Amino acid sequence: MDSRCNCSTSGDRSLNPILYNILSRMDTGEPSQQTFSNSSAPHKCNCEVRRTVCLLRPSEVCKDASAVLVKTVHFMRNLPAFNQLPQSDQYSLLKSCWAPLFILGLAQEHVDFDVTDVPADSLLKKILLNRQESPEMEREQPTMAGVSKLKSCLKKFWSLDLSPKEYAYLKGTTIFNPDVPELQAGLFVEGLQQEAQHALSEVVQLLHPGHQERFARILLTASMLQGITPSLITELFFRPVIGQANLLELLVDMLFCRNP
């Protein structure tokens, strides 16, 4: 299926004529003589791929998300098997799994949220003020399509109603991913993942006897985690809190700071 925006077929200028004219005149150094009337209002693209969104209640949701992220890092730090790995492997696994683990944390803590469209004047102001001085504007902005994927994934987990033990072993299978490139202890990590999967299978059989399909459903739902980008998680939940800081660097500091 073609996922391109079909709201307009006449190019970027038709998508936002006001913005196009402003930025074009900034490039050429020409003063703007444009008078903005109702007839020249920017076209609003309603397709989910282009529709940028932000949290409706950022102060409340970001606080809950930050608490989930702290619990996520503490979970990793408290795994004896994880601490036995070379530090380079710990870093590689953290980089690979922090976002899926965080989503599992959102599901376990039942953190729900709503989004709203990014105000047009706010987006325009960011572009005008940061265009020449901040390459950070190139970051992937949260879209309704990305948020819909995340919400669908959360609803799937909520429908499964996983127990704390099921979440714990599922997190183990997520952390110990032998497919992460350049692991020094790849075989050890593969063994740890197999152990976590076996433990998950056993606890599922114990808690839900007669539901042989549940284990497969859990793994199938977990596969949805890979379709949600870390950049979406970062920009939606943490950019309002950390500003221009690098979230991965903050996570590394949290993980390898051994002092309580």
Write the layout of secondary structure elements.
Blueprint: H1 12-15, H2 17-28, E1 53-55, H3 58-77, H4 80-83, H5 87-108, E2 115-117, H6 120-130, H7 144-160, H8 164-175, H9 186-207, H10 213-222, H11 230-242, H12 247-256
Antiparallel strand pairs: 1-2
Helix pairs in contact: 3-5, 3-11, 3-12, 5-7, 5-8, 7-10, 8-9
Write up this protein.
By secondary structure, the protein is mainly α. It is built from twelve helices and two strands. It has a two-stranded antiparallel sheet with strand order 1-2. Helix 3 packs across helix 11 (230-242), helix 5 (87-108) packs across helix 7 and helix 5 runs antiparallel to helix 8 (164-175). The radius of gyration is 22 Å and the shape is globular.
Secondary-structure-derived class: mainly alpha
Number of strands: 2
Strand content: under 5%
Strand order, largest beta sheet: 1-2
Radius of gyration, CA atoms, in whole angstroms: 22 Å
N/C terminus separation: 51 Å
Order of helices and strands: HHEHHHEHHHHHHH
What about the largest sheet?
2 strands, antiparallel
Number of helices: 12
Low-pLDDT residue intervals, each spanning 5 or more residues: 8-15, 26-44, 132-136
Mean pLDDT: 83
Please state the overall shape, judged from the principal axes of the Cα atoms: globular
How helix-rich are the residues, as a percent range?
55-70%
Structure summarized in a few sentences:
The protein has 260 residues and is mainly alpha-helical.
